[in-house]
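Ex. 9. Protein: Response regulator MprA.
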Amino acid sequence: MIVIKTRQPDPELEQKIRMLLEREHIEAEQISIGSQEKLVFPGLTLDGMTHEVSCNGRKTSLTRLEFDLLLILASHEEQVFSKEKLFRAVWGQNCDDTLKVVANTVSNLRKKLADCGSFIRTTHGGYTFRGKKENNPE
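Predicted structure tokens for Response regulator MprA:
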């Protein structure tokens, strides 16, 4: 016969876990964007409502994940995002190959965007988007 002794939950530990989970949730919300936002840069337009991207007047076909990744970067211009933070924001989870998945998606995105792919910059520890935002045409 095996007797399992249960331990009373540690309220202090539970509080720390709750605080960490809340902080992660807040960080994820900070990098979300409005789905109807339209971003216009010199040569690059992203339409959050129609999920269309055009580079130098030519429509570019992106997967949903590629579009979401580009939209997050472009809507937070000049902000550096770690690969882990981007993965959580776009894929919504973590996995063992987080760094590879993000790097491969960014590489594919740059290829599809051709000249406009240079807006996505690799930085120490992650990626950033550098472009000069233009006024939104209504």
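Check your answer against this statement. The beta strands are 38-41, 44-47, 52-55, 58-60, 81-82, 120-123, 126-129.
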